[in-house]
Amino acid sequence: xxxxxxVSTPTTVQKLGAEVAGTFLLVFGVxxxxxxxxxxGGEGNLxxxxxxVAFALxxxxxxxxxxxxxxxxxxxxxxxxxxxxxxxxxxxxxxxPYVVAQLVGAILGSTLxxxxxxxxxxxxxxxxFAGASTGYGVLSPSDSSLVTxxxxxxxxxxxxLLVILGVTSSRAAAGFAPLAIGFTLxxxxxxxxxxxxxxxxxxxxxxxxxxxGPDALGQVxxxxxxxxxxxxIAGLVGRILYADKR
Length: 246
Description:
Layout: H1 3-6, H2 12-39, H3 49-72, H4 78-86, H5 95-118, H6 125-131, H7 146-167, H8 177-196, H9 202-209, H10 213-241
């Protein structure tokens, strides 16, 4: 029997488990780096800065896509699942289970980070998680406006989804999708972090906001709505742009 013939289709439990694990990895990596960037800048120059956070985001997705993508497709983001469904690449009936799994993984990631950093002297949980939360005004590193943050989150998520649709299309070179997706996240994060703290992912935003205090919770709607709007736009465009008309 060939190796290809021996590979079975992943079960629903395996798919959802992969989404939990991949989203956990993403949140643990990017929010862990963000908390360190805001808290670890003391002796020894330990602060990774926003460049480090951008790389943590991209690398965590590359690793997760290679490790868990073969099981679930490697969404790790409710906006991705919705955008792929709009584009006709993912079954609508599977969107809700994926979103629930992503939320579970994200909240596990932020909760574990809270437990880790809480044991560090001088750590202010609400202030630190608020500093890692996506938003405008007091939550924006540059005090950006609501309109600015909405636009950057919508446009960045749409660009991200279009890249996903492109590198996973039938015309794309095989094996390089995780790299292209991770590099894209790094690029858009470099643009968005100074403006919005760069989420593009409702699960990541919710998992951070629940520990970030009233400002983070009050603005979390933006981090849910904007990525979903961007994903829907990209899904509609992708249906045309990547249509296979053979």
